Amino acid sequence: MNEEILKGLLEENIIFIKGKLTNEIADYVQHSLFYFMQKGYPEIKIYITSSGGSVDIGLAIYDFLRHYPGGKIGIVQGYAKSMAVLVLQGCDIRKAMKHSVFLIHNLSQSDVKLEEIRTPEKINKLKEKMEKSQKKINRVIAKNSKLTEEEISKNFNAERYISPKEAKELGIIDEII
Predict the structure, then answer these.
(1) Which residues span the domain enclosing 126?
(2) Per-residue pLDDT tens digits for 154-172
(3) What's the whole-number average pLDDT of the chain?
């Protein structure tokens, strides 16, 4: 998105998260929150249209949002997939547009290097790391939804697309707009 448009959105207390969650997106969110802190912690809106991204980046953005003391309204436009669902949980009020789509699933690892799985010990180490990350994700979603960590693990073992209505029933969002 063009820098001039992003500046205009910041003036209106809006953060726009679009695309894959990358280091650049995390930096943009963090810098935007610092900007809002200088403005006296106004209530902000975070618009999300994202296919997700790495666990570490998603958790970092979630933490940035969670620690911002002003009000935060998250609005899903189009889709929130994978870690983007977790980012939404950092908002005080979570909304989704009527035709939005959510994708929830257990952690997957697509960028594994051969060196990381050459021996059973390395495979076990990778598995342990992934299980720890999955527990962190489940804990965040459980804290902010109507589900227990066990229900999350069981229900989202495979990829699952859900509607805003289902997301509201599960407590992943608060309102459909």
Answers:
(1) 3-176
(2) 877 778 899 999 999 999 9
(3) 91
Greatest pairwise CA separation for the chain in angstroms: 53
d(CA 72, CA 90): 8
In percent, the amount of the chain with pLDDT more than 90 equals 64
Domain count of the fold of the chain? 1
Do 119 and 68 meet the contact criterion of CB atoms below 8 Å apart?
no
Beta strands in 22-128 (DSSP E): 44-53, 72-81, 93-96, 101-104
Q: Report in angstroms the alpha-carbon separations of 162 from 86, 87, 104, 147.
A: 14, 17, 8, 15
State how far the Cα of 26 lies from the Cα of 119, in Å rounded to an integer.
Answer: 34
| Predicted structure pTM score | 0.89
CATH number (domain holding residue 30): 3.90.226.10
Average pLDDT over residues 102-130: 76
Residues contacting 150, CB < 8 A, separation 6+: none
Distances (CA, A) of 167 to 53, 70, 78, 97: 20, 25, 14, 11
As to burial, measured by CB atoms within 10 angstroms (0-12 exposed, 13-18 middle, 19+ buried), residue 61 is buried
